[in-house]
Specification:
15 helices; 13 strands; alpha/beta; globular; Rossmann fold; six-stranded parallel beta sheet; about 400 residues; 2 domains
């Protein structure tokens, strides 16, 4: 007989993208080994049918309609008010279930943020939170490279500092805090959580993607690519600034995606007089994405705030080396694998100079591109396989049960 647990997923939808899909995969895969009660929001497409098919007990908790209506005009602030309202209702449901049944532990999964409300208050059973990221921030010196979105990032930084202080109480209320990157792990350890673990949140399939053997010869046009959401915090402006200074090399940059930073990036490129070297594709289908990866020598992910780096994994699956900042989640992905280059994030000036130096070295054949491609093609994805993540999770959860 399987032990019964409660899994709380704010974002959970079969076939959903990003966090919604991750939430469902955590629940589905855990249900193979545990008797799962899933608490989530109503209206998730296909969720009831999938839960029924896989023997998962579904409990849907909603935000009162009057509260939803009143908070709707307040944008992001309204969203967080609804999240906290939802979490308060979830806490009541958890207590009722724990009072009636024997529950091994409650696991708050997805919504990977230290901002998530504490749903564990007064819950009398083991408690697990994660994989949680958070604490990542845009250093003030980099704000001008974020563009118009820097106002939101400054507000976010202030909230982050306040949330980080509150993290102490949240961490202490957990028996286990699973962290999604090294920055959050350091915060959790400093906050006095009784037990922490590092499980990287992004996931890839064991089925390998087709790789195109990459090569580069001195004097060729060096092709960079970015595929993803175009947000100011991605700071492709750092790469643009560096490439604008690399006058003696031929290069191109493909940017595929849409988002609030697109207009700013286009104007930034125009101001640097490099617009002719950059193709903004906007939203594109799989065929164009495949073409972009096919011709790319380097995947550019010079983001100054990111908890994971799923775009990097997609590039590495295709054998494309990655250029990223040694900061936040991307640093954990590349680390010492040799499958790309990590750029110092001490200051914008340092980052830009280092990117330029590295790009020029690559173009002039002073950097062994073939070796970097080989490292990318042989990148060890084991930590990102669901089988690995789940086994690590279950081993830790079982250890907590015995403690």
């Amino acid at each position: 007989m399987k032990d019964k647990i409660i899994m709380v997923c704010y974002a959970c939808e079969p076939g959903g993208a990003t966090e919604h899909g991750l939430g469902w995969q955590w629940v589905l895969r855990t249900s193979q080994f545990k008797d799962v009660i899933l608490i989530t929001r109503p209206g998730r497409k296909g969720l009831a049918e999938e839960c029924n098919k896989n023997g998962i007990e579904l409990v849907e908790v909603e935000v009162p309609s009057i509260r939803r209506k009143l908070t709707q005009p307040f944008g992001d602030v309204g969203i967080w008010i609804r999240i906290y309202s939802w979490a308060s209702n979830v806490n009541k449901h958890i207590k009722k279930i724990v009072d009636k049944e024997t529950i091994e532990y409650v696991h708050l999964v997805t919504f990977h943020s230290i901002w998530m409300p504490n749903i564990f208050k007064g819950v009398e059973t083991k408690k697990i939170w994660g994989p949680v990221s958070g604490g990542e921030y845009v250093p003030s010196a980099y704000m001008e490279y974020v563009g118009p979105e820097n106002k939101k990032e400054k507000i976010r930084n202030r909230i982050n500092r306040w949330m980080t202080k509150r993290l102490v109480n949240k961490a202490k209320s957990c028996d286990l805090m699973i962290c999604g990157n090294s920055q959050t792990l350091a915060l959790a350890n400093d906050s006095g959580c009784s037990k922490t673990a590092l499980i990287l949140p992004n996931a890839v399939s064991k089925i390998p993607k087709q790789k195109a053997r990459k090569s580069y010869s001195e004097g060729e046009c060096l092709n960079f690519a970015f595929v993803g959401s175009c947000q100011g915090r991605r700071t492709l402006t750092l790469l643009m600034s560096a490439l604008a200074k690399a006058n003696d090399i031929k290069w191109k940059l493909d940017i595929a995606g849409t988002g609030p930073a697109l207009r700013f990036w286009k104007q930034y490129a125009k101001d640097l007089l490099i617009s002719d070297n950059i193709e903004f594709h906007g939203w594109v289908g799989k065929d164009v994405v495949d073409m972009i990866y096919q011709r790319a020598h380097i995947f550019a992910f010079t983001t100054i705030r990111d908890g994971g780096g799923s775009g990097m994994l997609e590039a590495l699956e295709r054998g494309v080396p990655v250029l990223a900042l040694d900061w936040g989640g991307p640093a954990d992905v590349i680390a010492d694998t040799g499958a790309g280059k990590l750029i110092t994030a001490d200051s914008p000036e340092t980052s830009i100079a280092e990117i330029k130096s590295w790009v020029v070295g690559l173009a002039e054949g002073k950097i062994n591109y073939s070796e970097m491609v080989e490292k990318a093609e042989n990148f060890n994805f084991e930590d990102y396989w669901w089988e690995t993540k789940l086994q690590k999770y279950l081993d830790i959860a079982n250890a907590i049960k015995k403690s």
